[in-house]
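Slide 14.
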Amino acid sequence: MKNYGHRFLHEITKNKKYFVFSLFLSTYVFGAQIIIYDSKQQLLSTLISIFVLFLFSKLNKLAFASISLFVLVFTSVVLHITLHWGAGNLPARMQAVLLSPAYEIEGYIRSYFNGFDIAIILYIFLGLFFLYLYLSKYKATYHAVKHSSLLLLTIAIVIVSKTNYLQAMAPYSYIPDLIEASAWKVVLTEREAYLASLNYKQNSIKEGVLKYDKVVVVMGESVNKHHMGVYGYKVPTTPFLTRLVKNENNAVFNNVISPSNQTRYAIPVSLTGATVKSFDDFVRSKSVISIFKEYGYKTYWLSNQYMAGMHDSYVSSIANEADVTRTSNFVYEAGGRADSSFDMILLDYLEDAGIDGTERELYFFHLLGSHFQYTRRYPEGSGVYPNPANTVEEYDNTVHYTDTLLGEIYNKFKGKKTLFVYIADHAEVVDIDKRGHGFSPPFKDEFDIPLIVLSSEYNERLVEMKKANDKELFNAESFSELLQYLAGVASDRATISNRSQVISLEPNNVVDYDSLATYP
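Slide 15: predicted structure.
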C-alpha cells in the first residue's frame, strides 16, 4: 500500500501540467453554468460535475474531450436562454427548438442576438482552442492514478444515481430533459390513432338555431391587444376593426386571456377539449373543426404558418382534421432558408379554395401576424410608420397590416350569412428594450389577446356572451365551446372558462394570470 501511494504521488508530480490543465478545462466548460446557478444545491451539483469530469480526464482523453465539448456548448446555450428569457423550463425550450424549422431559428437569432451572445460565442471558441491544446499538446502516462480515478468515478456515479435532488440538477438532468422534449412525437402518434378510430356521423341541428352559412376564424399570432386601436391604443393601428365594431351586431371582448404563452399549447387548448389543467386530454379529443364537419360544414385550414416540423406538430395535427388544408411551407424551399410570404398570400389560397355560395363552410386562417422579426411581416414602407424608428413602431405596423388583411378577408364574405371571428394564439411583450413571448417568469402582456366577433346577423347569444365578458374574465381555453355556441352548433348552453390559470412554457408549469406583472 505504501508503495502504491508512492507511485501515485510520483505520477501526479510527473504529470503535474496535465493534471492542472485538465482541472482547468473541467472548470472552464462549466463556467456558463456557474454564472447562472440559482441555488446552493445547483452550485454543489456543478462542483461535483467538475470533479467527475476531471476524473474522466484520467481515464480516457477522447471521452473527456467529447463530454467537455457537449457541456461547453449546452451550458452556453442555457446561459443564452437565461439571459434573454429567464431560467424557465429547459425541456420546454428544447421542444421549441425541435418544433422550429430552420427559418424560424434563423429569425430568432437575428432578432435576439446581442453583445452577450458575442461574448458567449467567443467563450465557446476559446474553449474549443483549449480542447485542441489538451488533445494535441498534453500527454500523460500513469497507472496508479488511473486506477484511483476509476474507483472514485464509480463512487461518484453511485452517489449521483442514489441522490434524487442531484439527478434533478444540471447537467445530470440534460439527457432526461432531451427525452422529455421529444415526447410530442408520442402525443401526435397517439392522437392520430385516436382520430383514425372515430366514426364521424352527421348530426342534426335544431330549426332556427343555426344562423350562419359561413363561419370564419382568423387566428392571429403574437397579438398584444393593447397595441390595437380598437382596444383604445393611441395609435390608429386597426382602422377596419374600429369602424366595423360600431355595428350593433358586432362585439369586442375586452377581458380575454390566452391559455398559454406558447403557440404549440395555446392553439390545441383553444380548439380541442384540452384545458390548462389537463393538456393530456388533447390526445383523445377532436377539435372544433371535426365538430363543425359533423354538422354539415365543409372545413378549411389556410395557413401562412410553416409547419413546426417538416410534417408534424400539435397545430398541424389539428389542421389535418380539415377537409382542405393548405400551408405555406416556404421554409422548406431552398434548404429551409427561403424568405417568408406576407399573410396576404392567404387571399390567394381563399381564391383557389373558392367560396361556395350555398354550402355551409368553416374557414380557419392561421397568420404569421406579429411574429418576431416584425419588419418581415409587412411590405417595406407601409403601415402606420413608413419608416419605423424602433421595435414598438415596427410591431404597430404588423398590427396595422393584419387589420388590412382582416378587411380583405371580411369583404370576400360580404352578402353571406357570416360569423367572422378574430382571436390570437397568445400575446407579446412589446417594448423598445424587450420583446417576445415565453419569458420565465411570464408577464401579463403575453396573455392579453384580442377577441372580436363580427356578425352579419343579430345574434342574441353574442349579446349574452358580451355582457358576461364585461363582468368576468374569459379564458380562451374554452374558445371551441364559445364558437360552437355563437354559431348555433352543438351547444344549447355556453360553457365558458373563467379560469385565471394559464400555461407558462409547458403544461406542467401552470401559473395564475392575476399574480403576474405587466412589463416593464
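Speaker note: The first helix runs from residue 2 to 14.
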